[in-house]
Amino acid sequence: MSSSPPDWLVRALPSPHAGCARLTVAQLADDKTFGRGGFALSSPAFRAGEALDPSFTADEEDAVAPPLEWTAPPPGAQELVIVVEDMDAGGDDAACHWLVWGLPGQKGMLLEGEVPPRVGKNAHRNSEWLLPEPPHDDPPHTYVFQIFAADLPLTLMPGASREDVVASIKGHVMAAAVLTATYKREEEDEWDEDEEFE
């Protein structure tokens, strides 16, 4: 994996840095497939680069995955795959928050909290939306929602790993798009020592 992100991805991301080279889209897409045919990903809950509402994060009870919408992929697309990763998490790989496939190769959407057809393992090895929970003292983390249009259907069972999904569609991505959102947690309230020992 290259340590520097490709130019086409740098141009697509707000405040890009070396961490975006770890994103799945950097491995699977290129300047020809990225945004091909106007393929795009959006959300009715936030605009590109905006902050996620706490209702989609670990800071609110009953939090769920945000809604997503996408335009029609190029003709010949068989299946769509969504990967959401934290570009600012530590480690060798970008932390995976959501791994979704089984979506038809056409214009569509996922509603807020909707359970997708197939979900793989996130960074915590659970098959669900991993609620963003960056450290309180971190600057905002950037979450990159990535969508891929593949020219073949995936035969993976639910619970597959990101590595399995990447291997299944590598060389078969017809188009890709990204959507970014940020999240910074509120500072923790510091308890008052005088009050504690009154």
Explain what the structure shows.
The model is unreliable at 190-198 (pLDDT under 50). This protein has helices at 7-12, 24-28, 162-169, 193-196; strands spanning 41-42, 68-70, 79-86, 95-104, 108-110, 118-119, 141-150, 173-183. A five-stranded antiparallel sheet has the order 6-4-3-7-8. Strands 1-2-5 form a three-stranded antiparallel sheet, with no helix packed on it. The protein has 198 residues and is of the alpha+beta class. It has one domain (7-186): PEBP-like (Phosphatidylethanolamine-binding Protein, Alpha-Beta Complex), CATH 3.90.280.
Short description:
Helices cover 12% and strands 25% of the residues. With 198 residues, it is of the alpha+beta class. The protein is globular, with a radius of gyration of 18 Å.
Per-chain topology:
Layout: H1 7-12, H2 24-28, E1 41-42, E2 68-70, E3 79-86, E4 95-104, E5 108-110, E6 118-119, E7 141-150, H3 162-169, E8 173-183, H4 193-196
Q: Main beta sheet, described?
A: 5 strands, antiparallel
What is the annotated CATH architecture? Alpha-Beta Complex
**Class from helix and strand fractions:** alpha+beta
Q: Which percent range describes the beta-strand content?
A: 15-25%
Distance between the termini: 57 Å
The SSE order reads HHEEEEEEEHEH
The poorly predicted ranges are 190-198
CATH H-level superfamily title: PEBP-like
Assembly level = single chain
* Average pLDDT metric: 92
Question: Mind telling me the CATH class?
Answer: Alpha Beta
Query: Radius of gyration, rounded?
Result: 18 Å
CATH level-3 fold name: Phosphatidylethanolamine-binding Protein
* Count of DSSP-assigned helices: 4
What is the helix content? 10-25%
Domains (count): 1
Widest beta sheet: strand line-up: 6-4-3-7-8
Number of strands: 8
